[in-house]
Amino acid sequence: MRISFIVVALLLLGSSVHAQVIGPIDSNFDSFRQNGVSTIESTGDTLWISPALNTYVDGFTDSWIAPEGLDSIYNGVGRVFSLDVNGDTVVAGLGYTASTAVGNQPAGYGYYLSTDGGDSWQFSDFYLDRYVDEDTTFIYGGTEYIRERVIVPEQSPPYSVAFKGDVIFSANWASGLLRSTDFGASWERIVLPPFGTSLLTPERNDYEWFDCIETSNGVCTQSQNVYNSVQDDNLKGFAVFIDSKDRVWFGSAGGINISENALSAPTDSVIWKNINFKNEADGLLSRWIIEIDEDPTTGRVWMTNWIAESSSSIYAGLDNYGIVFTEDGGLTFGQRLIGEQIFGISFKDNYVFAAGANGLFISRDGGDSWYKSPRIVSENNILKPSVQFQSVAATNDKIWVATTDGIISSDNYGDTWQIHRVNFPLSGGNVYDDEAATVSSYAYPNPYSPEQHDIVRIRFEVKDQNNVRVRIFDFGMNLVRDIENGSRSPGNYEAIWDGLDGRGRRVANGPYFYIIEMGSRKVTGKILLIE
User: Fold this and answer.
1) Rounded distance, CA 126 to CA 98, Å?
2) Quick check: 369 and 318 in contact, CB under 8 A?
3) 487 burial class (0-12, 13-18, 19+ CB within 10 angstroms)?
4) CB 397, CB 380: distance < 8 Å
5) Does residue 5 surpass a pLDDT of 60?
6) Whose CA is closest to 319, among 277, 283, 289, 274?
7) pLDDT at 18
């Protein structure tokens, strides 16, 4: 976070947000990789972010650090899907987008592990069964059961990782819950309760998992007792968390699963309690559990709930988005932010922050009451109107929020914010493209879709104090929009255009030209607008 910004307005802004010049803005060579950031984690004063494991040490540097030795990310297809950090230990779950016969699918790639704060890394391959046509077996509680092999990484990205000591857990959709007890040297599959079963214990020997083998009109008409994480909803993993009492929490498509002994018990005797959605006032809001975290101040364990019930379910239309917390290990739940799709939760002192599709929500009293943060702007930057808030983390002095349009931070619990976005200087590019040509200006994204991108940004440099005028013209060089006409000091700036003309009408598809006049100096460029 290279420039400190001061929020000058916290009110919803009108059309001036979409057509204006912002700056001066930073032009450092070191930058994080992309503005769309889905996962962030913190430890002490250090922040780690996806998708390229960049770090920022608050108060120590003004630049983002790109760790070395990460060939699977920088020279391969791997991207960070999940993170857990504690002190100098970092566990990153990697996935990638696989091209399949049915289209692109998220897939598991492996794990990067570090015990020295990222100075060195070891890579752990994603765990798959041997490629054999037949199913295999496993033992639980002295009873042998049949399990379908997982032989491909598709649909198994590590959506969440958690560790304590040498024990690592990984929550994956089609691979369920994986565990390593030797810090990634080897992995094993952890047995989970069948969907709708409240207790998995080795004292019982008659468990039945759901594996559909025949359907009619989209409804299963015949099933068999095979442990298949692609079929049984409670085996499909979204989130895993280890709380301060060493309980392991596994969030699935079948509710929340809690274990008192999963950290150390053999795979044939891990005991789980499952809590599912039952439309109760002191229960879950729904059965898809996407993220889990614990408030260190209050001890509450929080989790996000997403709508999941199909039209054939007895609970169809009764589940809801929101977040819940429990203070008694899952016996009862408090429901909050009902109706809001929340992606991430974090805590600082007695504040709780919830990042969602519809905004950033803040509680000053441990989660009992909430307010939605007004539109987040700064003196030198803005977020696009359709921004979504994805993940939250707290360093020693700041709260950080990852968004689809950059990262924001606050050192006063959200009263004011700094906005941090990818830097790509006009001269020499950045750390990810250090051979980029020097240009006088550029527009991004380009081609530009107002519906998809909201706004297009035009970066340029003012070399001397001067009057700056920025205008947009169509192919016939007819004036479309006059964005700026005022005095600017030396520095780098960005002109913002929302694809509207001067009367607020959406312009047609085609090429558009920008002309930036700065005294006797003129800079021009082209934007291709496509809906």
Assistant:
1) 14
2) no
3) exposed
4) no
5) no
6) 277
7) 64
Both tokens of 203, joined, read 């004292």
Supply 18's token pair. Answer: 């979409």
Output the 3-class SS for 17-41.
Answer: HCCEEEEEECCCCCCCCCCCCCCEE
Handedness of CA 434, 438, 441, 446 (dihedral sign): negative
Closest by CA to 154, choosing from 175, 180, 168, is 175
The whole-angstrom separation of Cα 225 and Cα 69 is: 45
pLDDT digits (tens, 9 = 90+) for 293-308: 999 999 999 999 999 9
Query: Cβ neighbours of residue 119 under 8 Å, at least 6 residues apart?
Result: none
Tell me the pLDDT band of 356, cut-offs 50, 70 and 90. very high
Give the pLDDT confidence of 11-65 residue by residue, as tens digits: 333 334 567 999 998 887 788 989 999 999 999 999 999 999 999 998 776 789 9
Distances 145 to 98, 127, 140, 220 between C-alpha atoms, Å: 31, 20, 8, 22
At a CB cut-off of 8 Å and minimum separation 6, what does 334 contact?
A: 282, 324, 325, 326, 327, 367
pLDDT digits (tens, 9 = 90+) for 217-238: 878 888 899 999 989 999 999 9
CA 18 from centre of chain: 26
Which of 240, 276, 269 is closest to 255 using CA atoms? 276
Residue 513: predicted pLDDT? 98
19/21 Cα distance (integer angstroms): 7
206, 195 Cβ separation under 8 angstroms? no
- Is 248's pLDDT higher than 50? yes
**Rg, the chain, Cα only:** 25
More confident residue, 210 or 370: 370
H/E element holding 207?
none
Q: How many CB atoms lie within 10 A of CB 138?
A: 15
In a 13 Å sphere around the CA of 502, the CA atoms on its Cβ side amount to 11
Q: Give 462-500 pLDDT, tens digit per residue.
A: 999 999 999 999 999 999 999 988 899 999 999 999 999
> In one letter, which amino acid is 288?
W
Q: What is the mean pLDDT of residues 415-437?
A: 87
CA neighbor of 486 nearest in space, from 476, 498, 495: 495
Sheet holding 158-164, edge to edge: 158-164, 167-172, 176-180, 188-190
pTM over 0.85: yes
3-class state of residue 72 by DSSP: helix
Q: What is the mean pLDDT of residues 416-442?
A: 88
Per DSSP, the residues of 413-476 read TTSS-EEE-----TTT-BTTBTTPPP-SEEEESSSB-HHHHS-EEEEEEE-SSEEEEEEEE-TT
Domain 441-529 classification at class level = mainly beta
